Structure formats: C-alpha cells, structure tokens
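Exercise 7. Given the encoded structure of a 131-residue chain, write a plausible sequence.
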C-alpha cells in the first residue's frame, strides 16, 4: 500500500488562504488624507498611501515618508519609517502623526474612509482624496 501524499494538498490549501496586506483592500492609486486623530480634527495636512504590496508612503505635515507594512489585513504594523528631515511650523503635528502611526495595529477600509486604530482606543481617520 502506498502512503498518501498530503503535502501538495496542504500547500494548495495554504496558498488559497494567502495573507494580504491592506494594499489588497485599499486601491494603490488612492491617497488618504488624515482628518481626525484621537477624536480631534487634525489641523495640519498629512497623507498616507499604499503604492504597492507591503509599502506605505505619504506626506507628513513637513516631510515626505515611506516604509513597510506587511501585516495581513485587517492588521496594520509599520516597519521603520524613512522621512526627509525638513523643519517647518507644523513640526509638532508631524511628531504627533508619526507617533500615532507607529502605534496603530488595526486597519478598516470602508468606501472612502480608512480607520487605523489600536487596542488602547487611539484612532486615525483618513478620507480618500479625489483623483
């Protein structure tokens, strides 16, 4: 009697359940604008986009930035974020933006709204900018 070969079947099942980052749910062409941080209107300008699988990019209040995001949706976790180093009057808002972004671990995309949040109740609400 020949033993059953289950490895190919298991591999097939696992490939059908592949993990996707948020880039699979948020259109790569969409730029998201931060409108609310922790329940308060965000007065400065900051954007977030998902230009390709596993990548984030955007414009913080003072500097452009990019980084990695490889957690499967609906999870969200940034790797190191690289940014330019310009100073500007909105540097406090930029510091708050990057600090919050690094603490987010749940993502929800619903139509033109992207919500990043975490288990402590922090929240970033983004809306998609018109194309």
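Solution.
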């Amino acid at each position: 009697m020949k033993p059953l070969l289950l490895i190919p079947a298991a591999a097939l099942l696992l490939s059908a359940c592949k993990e996707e980052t948020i880039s699979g749910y948020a259109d790569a062409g969409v730029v998201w604008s931060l409108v609310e941080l922790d329940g308060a209107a965000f007065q400065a300008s900051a954007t977030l986009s998902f230009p390709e699988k596993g990548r984030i990019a955007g414009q913080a209040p003072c500097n452009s930035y990019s980084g990695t995001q490889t957690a499967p949706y609906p999870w969200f976790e940034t790797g190191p974020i690289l940014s330019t180093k310009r100073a500007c009057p909105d540097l406090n808002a930029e510091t708050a933006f990057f600090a919050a972004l690094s603490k987010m671990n749940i993502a929800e995309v619903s139509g033109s709204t992207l919500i990043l949040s975490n288990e402590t109740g922090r929240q970033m609400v983004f809306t998609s900018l018109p194309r």
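Remark. Residues 19-128 form a domain with the Lipocalin fold (CATH 2.40.128.270). Students should compare their own answers with the one above.
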